[in-house]
Amino acid sequence: MALTIKHTAVAVATLGILSFILGILAENKKPAAGTPVTGSNVVICKYPSDPTVALGYLATVFLAVTTFAGCASLFYPYKGKSVPRGVLFKNKGFIVFLNIALGTTGLAAAMLLWPTITEQLHHSRNVHHNLETTCPTAKTGVLGGGAFLSLDSCLFWLVALMLADNAREDYFEETDGKVAAVI
């Protein structure tokens, strides 16, 4: 069975939705703060066991896979027929949505990675010499925002795929029409 645009669209949508769900779960599972335990001239922050860091990284991985699938689906030679890239880039709508998809992907990755790495650093660097430390966690809401941008990115990849499909159909109608006129 040959790979079709519908297959790639379903793959891009599914991976993007998984990234969104994992990002939302990471945001919801993040603790509000750690518990400070005072020692001799230090405060050790004890954080509850939570899957925030793992879910944040998984959301980022699924975003990366969504992006790869989205890029690959735009230029894949469906039914063994490839379209010159110049034909796709003549379509202004395609260029606009491709750039928006790339931009939202970058912003989503930044908003998923920043709190995930921050949370991981809070868990690993939990000994503080300031006795006033309140055992902070990563900024609330950023992971959720990254999850929504991940979903937006997925949708923009799908719009770019639809525009690429339209350009592909137009190209093959023109080339098939020229071949038929020559014969």
UniProtKB/TrEMBL annotation:
Keyword Transmembrane: yes
Main location: membrane
GO CC terms in record: endomembrane system
InterPro entries: DEAL/Modifying_wall_lignin1/2 (IPR009606), DESIGUAL (IPR052222)
Topology class, membrane: Multi-pass membrane protein
Signal peptide interval: none
Compartments in which it is found: Endomembrane system
Keywords assigned: Membrane, Signal, Transmembrane, Transmembrane helix
Protein family according to the UniProt entry: Belongs to the DESIGUAL family.
Protein name as it appears in the record: Uncharacterized protein
Origin species: Genlisea aurea
